[in-house]
Amino acid sequence: MPSRLGRLLHRRMTRWRPTGSTFLLGAYTVILLLALVAPLEFYPRNAVTWLEHADGIHFTSIGVVRSVSSPTRLYTDLTSGEGLTAEVLLSSHTGRHRGPARILSYSGGASTRNFSLDRKGQGLVVRLRTSLTGRNGTPVLEVHDVFNPGEERHLVVTYDFTQLCLYVDGQRRVCNQAPRGDFRNWDPSHELLLGNEVTGKLPWLGIIARVALYNVPLSAETIERLHAAVLRKNERSAPAVTGGLVALYRFTERSGTTIADSSPRPSILLTIPKRVEKARAFLARDSQLLPSSPLSRYLLLDGVVNLLIFVPFGLLGCIVLAARGWTLPQAIGTTIATTASLSFAAESIQYFLVSRSSELNDLILNVVSGSLGGALYWVTRRLRETA
């Protein structure tokens, strides 16, 4: 026995005759879906290879190296120390990088991190989360003209709870009094990553030959001595400085999928996964829908875009259904349900795409925007009836 809804749909469909508004809604739906899921760039195989004749790994395309799990020991050691030092020996490619490309990060997403070292153009961007900053680690330290494509660079970033400094090839380049604060608000669930973000959307291209983390701010003299040891290639893999050393990756394995930690502490292993995958929840929620702080430019733009594309969809859907004899509640309710279904399908596809992300906020905003389109149709119809 067909249900009441089934009989209703059957009657509506048997009387269905295509009109201009129907074709317009169909075309708009196709264009909308394509806009939501394009480009169809699915996650590739991990483009990380070992160097054949030297210690190091090579990021030739989209790739990532990540900690085997959320490294609890790393969190404990770094948050209980006297500051932070991050050391990286690398050479960067000339290829274009998406956004601030992630070289080294201890993070959980594109907008949440404990710290990160990123390439932007030929410069370096350092973000550090402290008790006086947000979870995105702003304000940032941005230094121009750090990278000469193809040339090896020894980068050391230090923080002593009062100033953030960058040393390039053993020489201090800049110190910034911001952000200050300690690490009490760091997130222990974040991962340690090389060459990309956990979302897989911010790949860096180049070679990394050494990474070290310390829970103390190394002095200028110590960094100069460390750089001198790095220049002597037969000594660069050794822990030239052991005081405060938390993790050391020398990349001496030359093969396999595991990168060992050479520090004297319990090992924090890194792994080279077979594929670059999005390590985040389906329909993730990276930010509050209605934050207490002023809306960021990104959130404001995202909201405006959702309104612009889904309000017309809701309005057109109601116009088409009402023209086919559907009652006002039926037309609006069906349009809102269709908006939710279409948006859910798009967010599901986006989960598997490199340049997109599956966001709960987007789903909510899309449904709200479609509902506003239905409300707009209801208002205009009432105005016509009372005119």
Give a nutshell description of this structure.
The protein is of the alpha+beta class. The chain has seven helices and 16 strands.
Would you write up a description of this structure?
It contains 7 helices and 16 strands. With 387 residues, it is α+β, with helices and mostly antiparallel strands. The chain is elongated, with a radius of gyration of 26 Å. The longest helix has 27 residues, at 297-323. The strands form 2 sheets. Strands 1, 2, 4, 9, 10, 11, 13 and 14 form an 8-stranded antiparallel beta sheet that branches.
Major sheet size, sense and barrel closure: 8 strands, antiparallel
Helix content: 25-40%
Measured by DSSP, the beta-strand proportion falls in 15-25%
Q: State the shape.
A: elongated
CA-to-CA gap between the ends? 44 Å
Query: Given the structure, what is the number of helices?
Result: 7
List segments where confidence is low: pLDDT < 50 over at least 5 consecutive residues.
Answer: 287-295
Computed CA radius of gyration, to the nearest angstrom:
26 Å
Instruction: Name the helix and strand elements from N-terminus to C-terminus, one letter apiece.
Output: HHEEEHEEEEEEEEEEHEEEHHH
pLDDT averaged residue by residue: 85
> What's the number of extended β-strand segments?
16
User: Structural class of the helix and strand makeup?
Assistant: alpha+beta
Based on the model shown, name its key terms.
8-stranded antiparallel sheet; 387 residues; 22% strand; elongated; 7 helices; alpha+beta; 16 strands
